[in-house]
Specification:
six-stranded antiparallel sheet, META domain, 32% strand, signal, alpha+beta, Lipocalin, 2 domains
Length: 266
């Protein structure tokens, strides 16, 4: 009479062990679900690279150079992941990002995204949590960049309504919304126009609103950057202007021959 009871106990123990094992697997072990939410890092000697994934599968990707040769290079992207095969995929036009599960993180492969996200190296192993950043305490002091504002400074996806560029600039400068119009704002380090550092910006209200950007580069580099901006996806109208060219106030302390970039909607 004891045998069925023993079999029942053994079966129950097996089920319990199996359930415990399943619970101990990482969140990315099931490719039907989304990757484990949180921050992933793939920092190296040249770049700081951070991937943030939310519970809903939204992601934001930030890459910025940290050496003398790469300090002016940065890139960023965002979107939503979907499960596919043994991993997860983001696909928009020619831009594609594929994530596959790896030990302690995710392996990233990005193709065709240079025009939208920036021409930097995104590919690599992104480890979950802050482990790869722990040895770089200075990185924690670096201000976070808004991916949408980063696109704005690249003259992409321009949103001049009060829920767009004005709000993002106000958050960056820690100002009230009504204080950002027509005022020269110091831009947080890390924002670039086609890889060139943006120093300050002015948001102008007019019949056709535009964003003026003082960029740290010479005329040759600025001309090439404007040409590049015109070729990217969802591009606005980028122009190279002189500081005294328009009737509006320009950048303080800069002469009439100083050059700046203006971005407006098409």
């Amino acid at each position: 009479m004891q045998t069925p009871h023993k079999h029942h106990n053994l079966r129950q123990l097996s089920l319990t062990l199996f359930a415990s094992l399943a619970l101990s697997l990482p969140a990315w072990g099931n490719n039907q679900s989304l990757p484990k939410a949180g921050q992933y890092n793939a920092n190296n000697k040249l770049f700081e690279r951070t991937l943030v994934i939310t519970e809903s599968g939204q992601f934001s990707l930030e890459v910025s150079g940290k050496s003398a040769g790469t300090s002016s290079r940065s890139g960023s992207g965002e979107g939503k992941l979907k499960a596919v095969g043994e991993g997860w995929l983001f696909n928009e036009g020619n831009c594609q990002m594929h994530l596959t599960p790896a030990k302690d993180g995710l392996l990233m492969q990005v193709d065709g995204c240079a025009g939208n996200w920036g021409d930097v190296m995104f590919n690599g192993l992104y480890q979950y949590g802050g482990a790869s950043a722990a040895s770089k305490p200075a990185a924690s002091n670096k201000p976070a960049l808004n991916p949408k504002l980063a696109k704005t400074f690249n003259c992409q996806n321009l949103e001049f309504n009060n829920a767009g560029i004005p709000v993002w600039l106000a958050q960056m400068a820690n100002l009230q919304l009504n204080q950002v119009f027509g005022t020269e704002l110091k831009v947080t380090p890390g924002y670039t126009f086609q890889g060139l550092p943006v120093q300050s910006a002015i948001l102008f209200e007019s019949e056709i609103p535009f964003l003026a950007m003082l960029v740290d580069a010479d005329k040759t580099a600025l001309t090439a950057a404007v040409k590049k901006a015109k070729q990217q996806k969802n591009a606005g109208v980028a122009r190279l202007r002189k500081n005294g060219e328009l009737s509006t106030e320009g950048f303080a302390g800069k002469g009439p021959e100083a050059l700046y970039i203006s971005c407006a909607e098409r």
